[in-house]
Amino acid sequence: MAELTRDEEFTAFVASRAVWLRKVAYLLCADWHRADDLVQESITKLYTHWGRAGRAENRDGYARTVLVNTFLAEQRTAWWRRTRPAARPPEGTAFADPDLAVSLDLRGALAALPPRQRATVVLRYYCDLSVEQTAAELGCSSGNVKSQSSRALETLRRSSALRPLGRSGA
Amino acid sequence: MSGDGEELSVRMARYVAVEEAAAPPSRVDPALAVLRGRARRRRRAWTVVAAAAAVVLSTGSFAVLRDGGGAGPAEVPAVLPTGSPTGSLPPDAYRKTAPTEQSSAAPVVGRTVLTVPARFGWLPDSVPGVTYRSGPLQVGVVAGGRPGVSTRFELTAFPVGVTPDVDPLIGAGDGLRIDAPPVNGQEAYWVSSSDPAFAAAMDTLRFRSAGGRWFQLESAGLSEADRQQVPLRVAAGVLPGDYAPPMPLALSSLPERSVVSEVELYLPLRGEDRWEVRVNFQEQLSHYLVVHAGPDLPDPPANVLPGQSFFPEECGTGGGVKWCVDSAQPVAGSEVGDPAAWLARVVPRGNDRAAWSTDVLP
User: Fold this and answer.
1) Residue B64 placed within a domain
2) Taking a contact as any Cβ pair under 8 Å apart, which residues of chain B between 103 and 142 contact chain A?
3) pTM value?
4) For A164, which residue in chain B has the nearest alpha carbon?
5) Would residue B157 count as lying in a domain?
6) Chain B partners of A149 at a C-beta cutoff of 8 Å?
7) Cα–Cα nearest to B155, from B113, B205, B197
8) Which residues contact B68 (CB under 8 A, 6 or more apart)?
9) DSSP for A77-143, written as a single string
């Protein structure tokens, strides 16, 4: 009976967080199919450690940490890292929809970041975590997060991802 | 947060919203996670008990169980010709000659459901068994690494024709390529990082086979003295080339629109552990089923076993084997996703590996 409650609790939690986790995974890997695989593997790991997750102060944070670590582990161990997501469109391409232009610019720029910098950027600027919280999730020092963020922002500034709106494709 | 940081935050939110509008439907399935998670916990529980039993049996029993009775390193006794029905072991079952290398391993070829791009040759005594796996996240072979076994070697292959390079950033430092002694006369290198903490915990060896394909061997659980020499020896013994291990079960029929989504086969190298097989199916692209089997032995103590199954599970026993089908989404009154209907299709092949075959699908 306790097992039934455990499974129900897990299923309810994941069902309510799957969309959010999928978005974070997409930002990490820029491919919805792979994002689904990452989330599926992450929630499977989450299930096997559900007792520990239940004792965590921030269960959402625990789930997100599992997801990011799964992504980084895949980058270390698999040949997926060789298949970079689709990068930017040809130079000079103009888009009538500024949102679409921003989207494509950002996709290319994020894909060009090394995996750990990408994870840092996603945690800091999409998940709105502080430097200290990001460090805790990535298992590194605050100084390391600052340097990773700084490097990433510098790269994004050099790309078109952070240029002012209205000049896309100009 | 800096001005650029705030701008990036806004643009990332907009980016995800735009992309999500055109995203395919999500395949994320909490019920499948429960099924797979249960299987992992079950395997973990089995291994803890097996490891405890191994300690009790001690090395005297090993000497009886191992060919020759000596204390030499284990060879993986699994070199049956790919695709051939299994009879008895061929005379060259322990040969180390590399077979012809094939292209990237395909998860399903004909009636075969599990194909890996290489297999282990020499392994140290601390490795009790080998797992062959093929799924969406990995195709490869893992030696050891199960709960209670710290030594672990994970072997994967890069696609044919791909020469891997080192990521520019690994951990908190720059990725480094450090030349390693040649493996069987071929180029090899360690992947490391300028970050000392990361480098200290990282044991990744890449080596090229005689056929030109690159392999990666990740090691864990080795002493400082063994961190280099043992992986190099394991790599030297690797047998490149697609390999389909004989499987302990088959299916007599397969419902329409059913596909194999993941396969895992664990084979102990010595007699103290249990073999395990798990084949995941998707029926009608929406119903998940797990067919799993192992020796029909007393279960581990109740305190380490998962409790009552959350999903309908049907099991059968016979010939010393227990096989089960878990279904995540059975449909009342329908055979779609029905564990009982799937159980009737399972054909176990017993515990004698000589009777196993690579043919699994009908």
Assistant:
1) no
2) 136-138
3) 0.53
4) B7
5) yes
6) 5
7) B205
8) none
9) HSGGGGSPPP-PPPTT---S-HHHHHHHHHHHHHHHS-HHHHHHHIIIIIS---HHHHHHHHTS-HH
Q: Which of B228, B243, B258 is the last residue of a domain?
A: B243
Per-residue pLDDT tens over the stretch B308-331: 344 567 899 999 999 999 886 667
CA distance A13 to chain B (A): 9
- Contact: A126, B16; criterion CB under 8 Å: yes
B292 and B232 in one domain?
no
| Domain count of the fold of chain B | 2
Tell me which amino acid residue B63 is.
A
* CB-CB neighbors (< 8 A) of A147 in chain B: 172
- Cα-Cα-Cα-Cα torsion B309, B314, B318, B323, nearest 10 degrees, comes to -70
ipTM: 0.79
Distances (CA, A) of B267 to A1, B41, B43, B329: 33, 18, 13, 30
Compute the distance between CA of residue B46 and CA of residue B38 in angstroms, rounded to an integer.
12
Side-chain-side CA neighbours of residue A102 (13 Å): 20
Distance, CA of B173 to CA of B199 (rounded, Å): 9
CB contact under 8 Å between B16 and A122, yes or no, is no
What single letter denotes the amino acid at residue B138?
Answer: Q
Q: How confident is the model at residue B4 (pLDDT cuts 50, 70, 90)?
A: confident
**A66 and A34 together in one domain:** yes
Q: Could you tell me if residue B172 is inside a domain?
A: yes
Q: How far is A32 from chain B (nearest CA, A)?
A: 7
Residues of chain A with Cβ-Cβ distance to B158 below 8 Å are 79, 82
Could you say which of A83, A111, A142 is where a domain stops? A83
A50: nearest CA partner in chain B: B37
